[in-house]
Amino acid sequence: MSKWRERASIVRRDVEVSWLQWSLIAWLLIAAWFIWQRWPYIYWLALGDTDDNMRLMQVRGLLSGQGWYDLTQYRLNPPEGFNIHWSRLVDLPIAGLILFFRLFTSDFWAQRLAVGIAPLIPLSIVIGSIAFTVRRLIAPLAYPLAIVMIAFGCTVAMLMFMPERIDHHGWQLAFLCLTVAGLADDHRFRAGAIIGLSSAASLTIGLEMLPYCAMAGAIVALRWIWDRDQVVQLKVYALTLAGGTALGFAGFTSYANMAMRCDALTPVYLTVMTVAGALLFLLGLWNPASRIVRLAASVAAGAALGAGFALVFPQCLGRPEGVSPELARLWLNNVREAKPIYQHPLRTAIPIAVMPLIGLVGTIVACWLDWRRHRSVRWIPVGLFSIFACAMLLWQVRAGPAAQLLAVPGATALVWIVLPWLRKRRSMALRVVGTAAACIAIGGLFTGVLLRWFPIDPPSKRVQTVNRANARCTSLPRLQQLNRIPAQIVFTHVDLGPRLITTTHFDAIAGPYHRNGDAILDVHHAFMGTPQQFRAIAKRHHATLLLTCPNMSETTVYRSRAPGGFYDQLAHGKTFDFLTPVELPKGSPFKAWKIN
Mind telling me which residue stretches traverse the membrane in this protein (predicted)? Predict the structure, then answer.
């Protein structure tokens, strides 16, 4: 018995000390499982989202010699091209993997493998960061439980790291988790550097996490207001935020982002982050002894920053996209992920909301117990982030993945609190069953079972029809059948444009990217207007082929908003003298016409 206890003690110490090694092993196992599970998606290059397709096109352009700072997509709206406002930072790992796999296989297989593996890289940062956080806040042995929570409880967040999901959201979530790890770190210099650099990297990629970056800065300032000894963290954070943002701007900002735009890291936000860093650093140099003075000075600095932003960049006080009212009405306001969670069906809202709510409860309980037992405020920064993430769901449902990951420390703490109580029960059955039930329930794992066996708000037959059309018209085999038709400019739906240029030799007119509002409106006007209007718009864009996908989501908008319009007439089988039907392979989900 003593030998077994000694071995158990050795294993326990190894798991505690070698936490990073074991976290990476867990990541490798999860990654291997995802690659095996999603191999058909990798094989068929099933880039399911328009942004994933556009990311691959951006990488292809880079590897084909397109300029580092030129992110224009020339196969949309040729010859002018489409303004893509992203950065090259996320392109680097994908391009590196393609170049590596080219040494052993064909270019097409290199691309397949690269887009299958690349999304899993930021997942390693997520697992390592959350493992670090729970070790600091809960216990050295709590991180395996947190990894289980990530793998099984964060169902929506994990979709951001699946093979083929090469959009930038996975990297932004990784840097967000790294920011939380910095907030939980007791080493003040290191914590300030981690928070500042991860925020700068996230802003370099895009502004989706700007509210979280601002929240992180506010928490750093509040910690300094509460505890004057946190001045080292404040100053390091200020310098790394300003310096990291400047380096990100210099190294990755495209030519198009040199303008005073509000939707990316442009001179607008470079100025804001540099001034914010300078103000915080000056506050740290001053470091007044009075807590009231520190609070007043921080409020004054924040007010000055806000007033300066409003006066110097008034164009950024509204929607950052800067789109016209017509484009917002016809397109942007209808983007599902930009709607609050309460405007989504229950089958969508419940899997997203369960984990954040559980994590919120756990965080509040952990904060209260930590203060009651130790008079400590270590949990407060994570608690503020968790509350903020839940509130963000009421603004846009796209905040769901971040809210789930930020809930993991709180949910882990709740299990860590419940398990000791269960271990003290005399009944073996209660201990075993109760422990399993607590882990499943608190981890949010029951939502998948609940929705599988008891469907909530099931989709209607019409929605199922639309979903089938969306899947068939974006499948690689169906799209590559179109390559039998000579290459030309194709007039098709906005949401089909990026997938079409990724998988075929055709060029298209538009994609769902707000800086190109005129082209997006042209497509909507053409499909919802008169046949003569369609013909004029198609001619202006030099389009010689019309391609439609009946019942695709976008087509329902054309028909519902413009009954009797060009697309509605086309869907009802009406013919036009300027359109000649093009024969497609049997079973093709598309319809095509030559534009005369």
Answer: 20-36, 113-135, 141-161, 209-226, 238-256, 268-286, 293-313, 349-369, 376-397, 403-422, 429-454
Nearest to 505 by CA among 166, 60, 69, 167: 60
CA 16 from chain centre, in angstroms, equals: 31
If residue 507 lies in a helix (H) or strand (E), which one and from where to where? strand 507-508
The amino acid present at 152, given as its one-letter code, is: F
State phi, psi for 543 to the nearest 5 degrees: -80, 135
Q: How far apart, in Å, are the Cα atoms of 518 and each of 349, 439, 514?
A: 33, 51, 9
For 27-58, write each residue's pLDDT tens digit.
999 999 999 999 999 999 999 899 999 999 99
Task: Tell me which residue has tokens 């982002």.
Answer: 257
Range list of β-strands (E), 427-471: none
Tell me the C-alpha distance between 558 and 561, whole Å. 6
Query: At residue 1, does pLDDT exceed 70?
Result: no
| One-letter amino acid for residue 324 of the chain | S
Q: How far apart are CA 177 and CA 129, in angstroms?
A: 6
What would the DSSP string read from start to end of 149-187? IIIII-HHHHGGGSTT--STHHHHHHHHHHHHHHHH-S-
What is the distance in angstroms between the CA of the first residue and the CA of the last residue of the chain?
87
Q: Provide the residue ranges of all domains of the chain, joining segments of one domain with +.
A: 1-172, 185-322, 326-458, 469-595
331: tokens are: 């397109």
Burial (Cβ within 10 Å: 0-12, 13-18, ≥19) of residue 487: exposed
**Cβ neighbours around 261 below 10 Å, total:** 21
The amino acid occupying position 230 is Q
Mean pLDDT of 76-88: 93
> Within 10 A of 5 (CB to CB), how many other CB atoms are there?
9
Backbone angles phi, psi at 548, to 5 degrees: -125, 155
Query: Residue for token digits 């954040």?
Result: 356
Cα–Cα distances (Å) from 357 to 117, 158, 366, 544, 563, in that order, read 31, 18, 14, 52, 43
Quick: pLDDT tens for 185-240: 999 999 999 999 999 999 999 999 999 999 999 999 999 999 999 999 999 999 99
Torsion sign across C-alpha atoms 251, 257, 261, 262: negative
Q: Which of 106-120, 440-454, 575-589 has the lowest mean pLDDT?
A: 440-454
The CATH architecture one would assign to domain 469-595 is 3-Layer(aba) Sandwich (3.40)
Q: Which of 102, 104, 106, 93 is nearest to 58 (CA)?
A: 93
- Which DSSP category does 76 fall into? B
**Would the pLDDT of 11 be above 80?**
no
Amino acid code (one letter) for 120: L
Q: Which two tokens stand for residue 460?
A: 């209607």
**Cα separation of 222 and 216, whole Å?**
10
What distance in Å separates the CA atoms of residue 47 and residue 41, rounded to the nearest whole number?
8
Separation of alpha carbons 28 and 128, rounded Å = 12
What the block records as the tokens of 81 is: 């091209």
- The CA distance from 334 to 328, in Å, is 8
Determine the pLDDT at residue 545.
Answer: 98
- Residue 428 is predicted with a pLDDT of 65
Q: Is the pTM of this model over 0.70?
A: yes
